[in-house]
Amino acid sequence: MNTLAAVMQLLVAIAFVSIPVVRHRFGPVAKAAAEAELRRQNVRPGVLEENGIRFDASGHETAAPVTVAAVMITTAALHVAGADLAQLLTWIFSSLVVLMNVAIVYSNHTAVKSVEAAFRRKGDPELTRVEVEPFLQAAENAFPRWVRIQTYLRNTVVFAGSAVALVAVSFV
Known about the structure:
The chain is mostly helical. The protein is 83% helix and 0% strand. The model has no long low-confidence stretch (mean pLDDT 93).
């Protein structure tokens, strides 16, 4: 069962690393599409840069998923090594990963409201004029179609892989 838990944790790690990889590769295209939408709305595209709004994999968009992946890989290695601590760490970290992924899915479903609120908090009058839904849709449409499938697959791997790892350590 340790091997099964380790394999699931490695799959979860790969799933999390896929986030910044995709954003790094297609973020500039998404930014260009979002800027084109801003021009259509008569909003200066430079307002994004001025307010630190990015579509690439910089900052926490890379640090958070890479940290999750590192923790999952470390816990998987402990399972393979037969360390007693692996079971406890799996309970802690796989549970946290499930909760984090719930938050990610929720934020994706409430993105329009969240971005509208974030734009208001920035206090930039130009940002408050942005029609957020078409702005976000333009950025999303710039990603290849397979990215949507990859997102569903990633979420499935994270939820199912974490659940299987938790069940696997329950029978050790």
